[in-house]
Amino acid sequence: MVMSVGGFPSLALGCFLLVLAVEPRVAQGSSRGSTLGVGGDGGIVAPPTAAGICASSVTIHGYQCQEFDVVTQDGYILNVQRIPEGRAGGSGGGTNKQPVLLQHGVLVDGMTWLLNPPEQDLPLILADNGFDVWISNTRGTQFSRRHTSLDPTNPDFWNWSWDELVAFDLPAVFDFIHGKTGKKIDYVGHSLGTLTVLASLSEGRLVDKLQSAALLSPIAYLSHMTTALGVTAARAFVGEITTLFGLAEFNPKGEPVANFLQALCAYPGVDCYDLLAALTGKNCCLNVSTVDLFLENEPQSTSTRNLVHLSQKLTIT
After folding, report:
1. DSSP 48
2. What is the pLDDT of residues 1-53, one digit of tens each?
3. Per the confidence metrics, is the pTM higher than 0.90?
4. Using an 8 Å Cβ cutoff, are 232 and 263 in contact?
5. CB-based contacts of 223: which residues, under 8 Å, 6+ apart?
6. Alpha helices, DSSP H only, in the chain?
7. 136 forms bridges with which residues in the sheet?
8. C-alpha dihedral sign at 212, 100, 185, 107
9. How far is the C-alpha of 72 from the C-alpha of 82, rounded, in Å?
10. What pLDDT digit, counting tens, does each position of 206-262 carry?
């Protein structure tokens, strides 16, 4: 079990800053309507949608893919994808295969695992190597903007932080997958997806359903951030500056957030000429085409309260 700790969820937040510096794009896909019924195992097979992750990014490459809705104890309806087998097919449809769950980080969704050609996408690589692959989408992202009684336009819909992801989202998805497969789950988390599983395990959650955990860009504390913009942004969130805008939803593509960024870039010592480097430091492996592909689908909304709570992990001296 890989459980090292590290720094900031740099790529997701860096690309949120980049999207504010270019012409606004329309996210691929849209929110679906209300769910009419919930199965006894906490989820239902979601109706096919042309804008869904399966149709747009998996089945077009020749893979089977299923969409599910998983309902948390506090009423959020989470969209979950399953890729039960590789492109070559085979018997069993995932029945006897080892399940692996991929959990994305902050300000992105499950689509972020599927933005490259099939031979470079982790879910499809895993499916081709005999795994039963599951992809989860955190509450508030484009395919998980649903609730049993609340609407995303209601500020109460956004009254949560990563504490609720630990208490409700992860357990609901784990219970659903374990109920479908009867097997312990291999877990791959990125950034916020590592923080939530670490917190869950520290509270004794998931232990009976988890086989292993691989943590990518693991995060436990933010005290090692050194970039001026990253520290300034975290300080601003710790001071809950965004409450001045009355924001419950933190939408990276919205005008209030763009104004917030402009205010940060005016701070002494902050150089926003290269926004990604200003937040994360120099990155060896990103190019313009990679960033353009990312921005066609990401970033995604989260709650302002979630970012405030994340930034409280920065030790301010």
Report:
1. P
2. 333 333 334 434 444 433 333 333 332 333 333 333 333 344 444 443 446 89
3. no
4. no
5. 313, 314, 315
6. 10-19, 53-57, 122-128, 162-164, 170-181, 192-202, 228-238, 255-265, 275-280, 288-295, 304-311
7. 80, 103
8. positive
9. 18
10. 999 999 999 998 876 666 666 666 666 666 655 555 555 667 887 777 676 667 667
- C-alpha distance from residue 272 to each of 14, 19, 79, 264, 275 (Å): 11, 13, 35, 9, 5
Residue 91, pLDDT score: 44
Residue at 266: amino acid letter: A
State how far the Cα of 278 lies from the Cα of 256, in Å rounded to an integer.
20
Q: Looking at per-residue confidence, does 72 or 5 come out higher?
A: 72
Length reported for the chain:
317
Between helices 228-238 and 255-265, what is the axis angle to 10°?
120
Sign of CA dihedral 70, 213, 165, 217: negative
In angstroms, the CA 292 to CA 59 distance is 23
DSSP 7: -
- AA identity, residue 4: S
Q: Which amino acid is at 79?
A: N
| DSSP 8-state secondary structure symbol assigned to residue 149 | S
Q: How confident is the model at residue 300 (pLDDT cuts 50, 70, 90)?
A: confident
CA atoms within 13 A on the CB side of 310: 29
Evaluate if residue 68 carries a pLDDT over 70: yes
Structure tokens at 151: 């609407």
Distances in whole angstroms, Cα of residue 147 to Cα of each of 89, 152, 158: 35, 8, 11
Tokens of 172: 């609901």
Is the Cβ–Cβ distance between 265 and 233 less than 8 Å? no
Could you give the CA distance from residue 60 to residue 158 in angstroms, rounded to a whole number? 33
Q: List Cβ<8 Å contacts ≥24 apart for 91-95.
A: 93/64, 94/132, 94/181, 95/181
